[in-house]
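Journal club prep — side note

Before the paper discussion, L.F. wants everyone to see what a predicted structure for a comparable chain looks like in token form. Sequence:
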Amino acid sequence: MGASPHVLIGNECRISGRLSLVGEAVIDGTVDGEIVSSGTLIIGESGVVDAKISGKVVRIHGRVVGNVECSERLELRAGSRVYGNLRCSNIIIEDGANFEGYSSMDEQPRSQEQASSPGQSSEE
């Protein structure tokens, strides 16, 4: 995990509602509702989430019931249990992960579009 996360929801915590997170966040407790993260979201081994999740990078070690969408990468780690639909451009499912639902992969962004600035021609 590296440096300390910006947000840590401990295993004794229970949160209901909508969470908007910036930076790295770790959930080891229980969350019901919706989670929106602009950074890396980690559902720890003791994390229990019954929520729709949207994030940049989502790494699941615990239990999630709900749909998960991410813009960069989704990781289902060994021992995780995920019940819902997944949508992401990169999905990693380790041996020992349990997943029930549908998955769809978005196209990777085209590097040509990222490299060209608006108003500039690539034929210069």
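L.F.'s comment for the group: The chain is about 5% helix and 55% strand. Keep this in mind when we get to the figures.
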